[in-house]
Amino acid sequence: MTTIAVTTWSLEQTAPTDLLPAAPPEGDVRVVRSEVPSPEFSRFLYASVGGDIRWTDRLGWTYAQWLEYLDRPGVETWVAYDRGTPAGYVELEAQDDGVVEIVYFGLIPAFRGRRVGGHLLSYGVARAWDLADRWPGRKPTGRVWLHTCSKDGEYAMDNYRRRGFRLFDTKVEEEPRAATPGPWPGAHPA
């Protein structure tokens, strides 16, 4: 089995004032929280956004695993809709001591390059900062962090930096070379 070197960068914001919001895109783009845990919908978003950039770690999850994860207090999915069609999402996970991780963020390929990504990321980061307002008993957010890697979209790092994220760690690891799965088997050429 062949491997590839994958660089992972971890970035953070440590105050709500770190966020540098993008201008909203033109047209009817809305960001809405998916409040009912739905393994089917979350798997659709995960596979549709990550299928061409080799997101594979959750493809084998069962319905029960998806539901268990999504139903935890402090896990939120915010979905961007372009004229009613899902365009992408940002997934937040509250962690201990007022930390919120942006676990997943991205756009379905057909919606990339339309200025939706900066807007969705800005919106998602703002929701990370006010997450405790929606979850009584959670400590107020004091840090928002995420990671991106060399397998992600070519503009991901630039978008994170433009939104005010600062690099705090870099790692390089060998990973097995995986085929590009697409949103369903055979949907995208390898």
TrEMBL record:
<protein>
    <submittedName>
        <fullName>GNAT family N-acetyltransferase</fullName>
    </submittedName>
</protein>
<dbReference type="InterPro" id="IPR000182">
    <property type="entry name" value="GNAT_dom"/>
</dbReference>
<dbReference type="InterPro" id="IPR016181">
    <property type="entry name" value="Acyl_CoA_acyltransferase"/>
</dbReference>
<dbReference type="Pfam" id="PF00583">
    <property type="entry name" value="Acetyltransf_1"/>
</dbReference>
<feature type="domain" description="N-acetyltransferase">
    <location>
        <begin position="39"/>
        <end position="190"/>
    </location>
</feature>
